[in-house]
Specification:
The chain has 283 residues and is α/β, with parallel strands linked by helices. The structure holds adenosine-5'-diphosphate and magnesium ion.
Length: 283
């Protein structure tokens, strides 16, 4: 598992050397992001949250895809209070935190957030404060971000200590993943990001894709330390028709079909994340 551990700080390193510039609190905040849209970020966020909850962790998922929020749809929730109400001062943050079917907490963006899909000082402050307030109450916070490299996506990613890139094996998804990873190295001074390959066609796809992408990063993307950006492969999730069925029924795959190949892969991903990034539950 050594390959999945963050690099130890070099002697004499300062806070400024650390990958995160703006992470508000020392909690395990993981941004789930992608280059291309529709690759499975929301599916991974919701089901990974359910799997980590089952393992005894206190989990919060924040719908940070402000422009195209749909975590509420996937979880079949109809929140009375959304981030929109918090942003406009109509409701208290506490009232926006609700329980999802998998036993974890969520803060939903809901519809009507389109005006917040641009990074204004207000959006910046609100997102920062919300995470700073809520993160200490949880063992892990997952940020279900938008796709791409817009400033609002990059800002929400900057609030996380760890980045999990979701990509599918399609060339378009990989090209966009590469572009996003490059920006995270140059703008956010990150030295590594993690990769999950979703909708994999064959076992071993993810490993091959990671090493291909790593080769390109080795050639073209150097971090602040002079070393290449490092990509850590955390797992593959196979293409599985059960995923679509669960989404159509608006149920969590982990609850609906816990034994199907994609659910087993998400459980494995939770294992890996737990063993590399989290403290054991209930300690
Ligand atoms: N492993 C998978 N196997 C089959 N279909 C999948 C898988 N992962 C995602 N999908 C399909 O892709 C759709 C988009 O996923 P979603 O999580 O909403 O993407 P994103 O949040 O990245 O835009 C899902 O509704 C589902 O139908
Ligand atoms: Mg999504």
């Amino acid at each position: 598992m050594n390959d999945a551990l963050p690099p130890s700080p070099s002697p004499g390193s300062t806070a400024a050397d650390k990958p995160m510039a703006t992470s508000p609190v020392d909690a395990h905040i993981i941004a789930i992001t992608s280059g291309k849209g529709g690759v499975g970020k929301t599916f991974v966020s919701a089901n990974l949250a359910a799997a980590l909850t089952r393992r005894g962790h206190r989990v919060l998922v924040l719908d940070a895809d402000l422009g195209l929020a749909n975590l509420d749809v996937v979880l079949n929730l109809h929140p009375k209070v959304t981030l929109h109400d918090v942003f406009t001062g109509k409701a208290k943050l506490e009232d926006a935190v609700i329980q999802a079917p998998g036993g974890f907490s969520v803060v939903l963006a809901g519809s009507g957030m389109v005006e917040y899909s641009r990074l204004t000082p207000e959006v910046r402050n609100e997102l920062f404060n919300i995470i700073q307030t809520l993160a200490p109450r949880y063992d892990v916070v997952l940020l279900d971000t938008g796709a791409g490299i817009s400033d609002v996506v990059l800002f929400s990613v900057s609030l996380a200590q760890e980045v999990l890139i979701v990509a599918t094996p399609e060339p378009t998804s990989l090209t966009d993943a590469y572009a996003a990873i490059k920006v995270l190295a140059t703008q956010q001074k990150r030295q590594q990001v993690r990769l999950v390959v979703n909708q994999a066609a064959r076992p071993g796809d993810g490993r091959a894709i990671t090493s291909q992408l790593q080769q390109v990063l080795d050639r073209f993307v150097t971090t602040d330390t002079g070393r290449p950006m490092r990509l850590v492969h955390v797992g593959d999730i196979p293409a599985d028709t059960s995923v679509r069925e669960a989404v159509m029924r608006r149920q969590l795959l982990m609850q609906q079909m816990p034994g199907c190949p994609a659910a087993l892969a998400v459980a494995q991903l939770a294992n890996k994340i737990e063993s590399t990034l989290l403290k054991p539950a209930n300690q």
